[in-house]
Amino acid sequence: MNILGFVLLVLVGIPLFILYNGYCDMMLWNWFISPLGLPVLDIPKAIGVSIAISAIAVPKTFQQADEKAALAVALISPGACLFFGWIVRMFL
Fold it and tell me: Based on the structure, what is the number of domains in the chain?
């Protein structure tokens, strides 16, 4: 990856991914957790909860992985969770 690509990833890609992940977390929380009596989350709170959980639950050791595969998993996972959560929500 050249320097321009890296700078674009840091300045544009990462903030967009954080917003995307926060939106998916917010929707899943509001669909499944807030009906149990916990407060409704907005995107900033969902991002904060996601960061806090990631700091605790994500293992600190990373193996050398293919960058493209890791990026694909990081982009697809929140959307896939949101999609399957949407399906489950229809049965509630």
Answer: 1
* DSSP annotation string for 42-61: -HHHHHHHHHHHHHHHS-S-
Residues 9-33: tens digit of each pLDDT? 778 888 888 899 899 999 999 999 9
**pTM, 2 dp:** 0.76
Amino acid identity, position 6: F
Residue 1 has a pLDDT of 62
Q: How far is CA 56 from CA 52, 53, 60, 63, 78, in A?
A: 7, 5, 9, 18, 18
Q: Which domain holds residue 26?
A: 14-55+64-90
The residue assigned the tokens 């990631």 is: 54
Helix axes 14-32, 43-57, angle to 10 degrees: 100
For residue 4, being part of any structural domain is answered with: no
Would 24 be classed as within a structural domain? yes
